[in-house]
């Protein structure tokens, strides 16, 4: 089982790229996620389709879909994706404040706050392991 490095090393490594994933015989995570979200009222089918479309994009880009035990640090991948999502949510808030979009500022803020809380959770996971 992979154990992450200490907190400071994790933060330093967060600006670096992870290696390309190694395909294996494990399940494709997109298939699991799509099956789990498809029944969400109002948006499940669209979300499941988006998950599968991203799976296809990942297969084209990496030559494989996301699978467990692929040689990458999944916690690092999660953290990096959350940081990027936080930046996009904040960008949308900025544009909303400037009148460039008509999205709900409250909903954008709630999304930004949720993403921030999730990123903090990853860091707390690291600190808990090496605290």
Write up what this structure looks like:
- With 131 residues, this protein is mainly α.
- The protein folds into 2 domains: 22-71, no CATH class; 73-131.
- Helix content is 65%, strand content 0%.
- It is built from 5 helices and no strands.
- α2 packs antiparallel against α3 and α4 runs antiparallel to α5.
- The protein starts with 6 loop residues before the first helix and ends with a helix.
- The model has no long low-confidence stretch (mean pLDDT 93).
Condensed summary:
Helices cover 65% and strands 0% of the residues. It has 131 residues and is mainly α.
Mean pLDDT over the full residue set: 93
Number of domains: 2
General shape: globular
Determine the structural class based on helices, strands and strand pairing: mainly alpha
Cα separation of the termini: 19 Å
Number of E strands = 0
Our estimate of the beta-strand percent is under 5%
What is the element string, with H for helices and E for strands? HHHHH
Uncertain segments = none
| Approximate helicity band | 55-70%
Rg calc: 17 Å
Taking the sheet with the most strands, its summary is:
none
Number of helices: 5
Task: Outline the fold blueprint.
Layout: H1 7-13, H2 29-37, H3 44-62, H4 74-97, H5 105-130
Tags for this model:
single chain, 131 residues, mainly alpha, 2 domains, 65% helix, globular
């Amino acid at each position: 089982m992979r154990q992450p490095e200490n907190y400071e090393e994790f933060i330093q490594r967060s600006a670096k790229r992870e290696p390309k994933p190694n395909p294996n015989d494990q399940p494709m995570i997109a298939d699991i996620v799509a099956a789990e979200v498809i029944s969400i009222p109002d948006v499940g089918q669209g979300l499941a389709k988006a998950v599968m479309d991203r799976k296809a994009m990942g297969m084209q880009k990496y030559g494989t879909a996301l699978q467990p035990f692929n040689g990458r640090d999944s916690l690092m991948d999660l953290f990096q994706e959350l940081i990027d999502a936080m930046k996009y949510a904040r960008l949308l808030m900025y544009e909303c404040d400037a009148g460039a979009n008509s999205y709900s500022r409250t909903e954008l803020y709630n999304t930004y706050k949720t993403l921030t809380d999730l990123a903090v959770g990853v860091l707390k996971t690291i600190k808990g392991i090496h605290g």
